[in-house]
Amino acid sequence: MTSSTAVSNPATQRRVAFATIIGTTIEWYDFFIYAMGAGLVFAHLFFKPAGEEIGLLLSLATVGVSFLFRPLGAFLAGHFGDVIGRRTILVITLILMGVATTLIGILPTFAQIGIAAPILLLLLRILQGVSAGGEWGGAVLMVVEHAPADRRGRAGAMPQIGVPLGFLLASGVMALMTGIVSPGKAFLEWGWRVPFLLSIVLIVVGYLVRRSVEESPVFTEIAERGQKTKAPVLVLFKRHWHLVILAALVFVGNNTVGYMTTGGFLHSYSTGKLKMDTTAVLVASTVAAAVWFVATLIAGRLADSIGRRNTFLIGFAVQALMAFPLFWLVNTATLPGLYAALILLSVGLGLTYGPLAAWYAEIFPVSVRFSGVAITYAIGSILGGAFAPTIAQALLEATGTTYAVSWYLLVATLVGAAATLCLRDRPGIPLGPDHEAEQASGATMFAPNVSHREVAGKQ
Question: Where in this chain does the record put each Major facilitator superfamily (MFS) profile domain (predicted)?
Answer without folding.
Answer: 16-428
